[in-house]
Write a structure and sequence with these properties.
Layout: H1 8-16, E1 24-25, E2 30-32, E3 37-39, H2 42-50, E4 54-55, H3 63-70, E5 76-79, H4 88-91, E6 97-102, H5 114-120, E7 125-132, E8 141-149, H6 156-180, H7 212-221, E9 228-232, E10 235-245, E11 256-259, E12 264-267, E13 272-280, E14 286-287, H8 288-294
Parallel strand pairs: 1-4, 5-6
Antiparallel strand pairs: 2-3, 6-7, 7-8, 9-10, 10-13, 11-12, 12-13, 13-14
Helix pairs in contact: 1-6, 5-7
GO molecular function: methionyl-tRNA formyltransferase activity
Family: Belongs to the Fmt family.
Domain Formyl transferase N-terminal: 4-174
């Protein structure tokens, strides 16, 4: 059970393994692009290529869906970024249980956007966890986990790809240990839990009076979506890539203090943020050199 690109490496490894993939359950096709054409999920596209049976319920908890899944007599359900909540009727269908792959080291960062919030909060490590699903929000017993370092160059997209592949291996190892009787589920310590709520577009508004590191981490954590952004002369710009530059003085927050082909230097609460890639509204992402070729930007103007 899965929908976006994050689910694909796990499905691919399951398909190539000795395990039998009986059915792929994924979200209904959604309109996408400028033409708003109905588009299948990445998981559905893979299943079609490999001729795996597909189910696309609008509501996976409907009696008809529960009946269909129950008739499979599956050993386990593997759930990776499916996008719908499973209730008790579904969770009790497999012979063993439902296994969920979550992109954090539980109990930290329960919720919808763990990859983004780990970067926004300046974490230097995160990971993936397989858990035995229950009816709570990422509260099930931990089966296995695997750590990953977050580099200074990572953004949400690069970390997403790393964790998707790391997670696919963890799912296969979880199944191997389940088959061998080696799994020892561990109850989560809720006192150590933190949460990663779903992101909204307005979360990306840059507050230039914050420390440079917080702004830098916000940009990294929100790339590519929803994107950190700011306004310059009432025009909206996505800030896609930044660096931090130490300097001897403190500049006025949001004010452009230096412009070069490498980047636009902007004042913050302490150090400078150097914008090296950005995206004007309605345009593609570009480096600063390309941006300056078509925009007359001067020192002293202020981002708000």
């Amino acid at each position: 059970m899965g929908t976006p690109k994050f689910s694909l490496p796990t499905l691919q490894k399951l398909y190539e393994s000795d395990h039998k993939v009986q059915l792929v359950v994924t979200q209904p096709d959604r309109p996408k692009g400028r033409g708003r054409e109905s588009t299948p999920s990445p998981v559905k596209q893979f299943a079609l290529e490999k001729k795996i049976p597909i189910l696309q319920p609008k509501k996976c908890t409907s009696l008809e869906v529960v009946k269909t899944l129950g008739e499979l007599n599956s050993d386990v359900f593997i759930v990776v970024a499916f996008g719908q909540i499973l209730d008790k009727n579904l969770l009790t269908l497999p012979r063993h249980f439902c296994i969920n792959l979550h992109s954090s080291l539980l109990p930290k960062y329960r919720g919808a956007a763990p990859i983004n919030w780990a970067i926004i909060n300046g974490e230097t490590k995160t990971g993936v966890t397989t858990m035995k699903m229950d009816t709570g929000l990422d509260t099930g017993d931990i089966l296995l986990s695997s750590k990953v370092s977050i580099s200074d160059d990572d953004d949400a997209q690069s970390l997403h790809e790393t964790l998707a592949h790391k997670g696919s291996s963890l799912v296969l190892e979880t199944l191997r240990q389940l088959d061998s009787g080696l799994l020892e589920p561990i109850c989560q310590n809720s006192d150590l839990a933190s949460y990663a709520p779903k992101l909204k577009k307005e979360d990306g508004l840059i507050q230039w009076n914050q420390p440079a590191i917080k702004i830098h981490n916000l940009v990294r954590g929100l790339t590519p979506w929803p994107g950190a952004f700011s306004f310059l002369e009432s025009k909206r710009f996505k800030v896609c890539k930044t660096e931090i530059k130490s300097c001897g003085s403190i500049d006025q927050p949001g004010v452009i203090v230096r412009i070069s082909g490498h980047g636009i230097e902007v004042g913050t609460k302490n150090e400078r943020i150097v914008i090296t890639e950005l995206q004007p509204e309605g345009k593609k992402r570009m480096d600063v050199k390309s941006f300056l070729a078509g925009h007359n930007l001067i020192v002293g103007k202020k981002f708000t």
